[in-house]
Design brief:
The protein is mainly beta and 220 residues long. The chain has three helices and 13 strands.
Length: 220
């Protein structure tokens, strides 16, 4: 019975998300996915960053688990005007602690705000290492050409989130920015206890009607 359990787990791990993300580098990854398509679609981590004042607040940082995880809620190391919360049953503080043991790779970000200007403010992704090395990647969100609504931006960028990763941005006066991080892959070492790989991959969410050729078929 243990053999069949491990075989089933292996099959789920290697073929469950055969439709994959549009920017997979290996054309034949998950190509023999079964008709049952037991894929788990990527579910987002949803973070809300609110500015309670009538003044813009620059250099607002979220993630940054090593530092923010030890800071005081609800600002988590930011100015007192800022409140950072998490949608769902998991608190933002719990999410930060989880990042330390379960890092993940983001495949897409969905930015939303009632202030139509907020989702298009520059985001700076900062990755640090224990040896002091630091890499900064500025992201300038743009309007989807198929989009017919204000206050929303889809950012198709891949980056790894670990305990040293942070994102910095400007939060406009009285605005709330909702950031949905869609994981492409996540690490959970406990999965090895059931014969699974420690890395779990997810299928790409359908966030846009825009059709982009990827060398094979059209993808959304």
């Amino acid at each position: 019975m243990n053999y069949f359990t491990q075989a089933e787990n292996f099959a789920n791990e290697n073929f469950s998300n055969y439709d994959g993300w549009s920017n997979f580098t290996e054309d034949y990854n998950y190509a023999d996915g079964g008709s049952e398509a037991t894929a788990l679609s990527s579910l987002p981590f949803v973070i809300n960053i609110a500015n309670s004042t009538t003044t813009d607040v620059a250099n607002v940082v979220f993630l940054n688990a090593n530092l923010a995880g030890n800071a005081t809620a609800p600002a988590f190391g930011n100015a007192a005007a800022i409140t950072v919360t998490m949608d769902g049953t998991i608190t933002y503080a719990e999410f930060l602690q989880n990042i330390k043991s379960s890092p993940f790779k983001v495949g897409e970000m969905y930015l939303q705000s009632s202030n139509s200007l907020q989702p298009f403010k520059t985001l700076t992704i900062i990755n640090r290492e224990a040896n002091g090395r630091k890499v900064e990647l500025p992201i300038n969100p743009r309007l989807d050409p198929m989009q017919n609504q204000a206050g929303v931006s889809i950012v198709k960028v891949e980056f790894t989130v670990d305990a040293f990763t942070s994102i910095s941005t400007l939060i406009l006066a009285s605005a709330t920015l909702t950031v949905s991080l869609y994981p492409k892959e996540q690490i959970n070492v406990a999965r090895s206890l059931s014969g699974q790989t420690v890395s779990k991959a997810y299928s790409r969410p359908n966030l846009s009607q825009l059709q982009v050729p990827n060398g094979r078929n059209l993808v959304g």
